[in-house]
UniProtKB/TrEMBL annotation:
Gene3D superfamilies: Transposase IS200-like. One of its GO terms (biological process) is DNA transposition. It comes from Caulifigura coniformis. This is Transposase IS200-like domain-containing protein. Residues 67-178 form the Transposase IS200-like domain. GO terms for molecular function: DNA binding; transposase activity.
Length: 203
């Protein structure tokens, strides 16, 4: 079985030196390093979102970012969902669950031909291209010399590989329930292949 739960954030969502810990090994921006110190690397796989921490310190660090943190609108989320669907069709990627939240995205992916991290990189690229094409990119007001906007995504991703149907089921349920945790309605994306159909097709 080849499946994974991946999470990736928008720019500014989770800093490499976040006081709750991060999966980054270094802080690339000097102003951010000066404001909040070294990368707070952790090696656990469970969520750190609810970890007790200094909220003021986290806000102070975010104020040192080069650009404002990105928060996706509903229109931007819809464009990203369409981009994911088109990418999955072209690459024969199976997406079993998808939650596009204002500052981060959850996916349960399967049957991918590349490493899960590379899949995330390709999905980010597809989404960025769609956002630019529809004039919805959140960084359009900060054009670079070559005319392209800065990335709207945080570096890297969090991923856990799922090696049994039970693990996949738990991850799918977790992702499906995630919008409600942020006060959002359930999401239904065209890219999703129902878990039951996927399992049946594997037999």
């Amino acid at each position: 079985m080849r499946a994974a739960h991946v999470i990736f954030g928008t720019y500014g969502f989770w800093l490499p030196n976040d006081p709750r810990g991060s999966w980054s090994k270094f802080v690339a921006a000097w102003d951010l390093f000066r404001a909040a110190g070294r990368a707070t690397t952790v090696h656990t796989r469970h969520s750190r979102a609810a970890t007790s921490h200094d909220h003021e310190a986290r806000r102070a660090a975010k104020s040192e970012l080069k650009y404002p943190p990105v928060t996706l609108t509903g229109l931007q989320a819809r464009a990203i969902g369409e981009a994911f669907h088109d990418f999955a069709e072209r690459s024969r990627l199976t997406v079993l669950a998808c939650a596009i939240l204002p500052q981060h995205i959850h996916l349960v992916i399967a049957d991918y031909r590349y490493d899960a991290g590379q899949v995330v990189t390709l999905l980010k690229g597809a989404a960025s291209k769609r956002l630019v094409g529809q004039s919805l990119h959140p960084m359009l007001m900060f054009p670079r010399r070559e005319g392209r906007p800065p990335t709207c995504w945080a570096r890297g991703e969090w991923k856990v590989y799922l090696d049994t149907p039970a693990c996949v089921t738990r991850a799918v349920c977790y992702v499906e329930n995630n919008p409600a945790k942020e006060g959002l309605k359930p999401q239904h994306w065209r890219v999703i292949t129902p878990f039951h159909d996927w399992i049946q097709n594997r037999r």
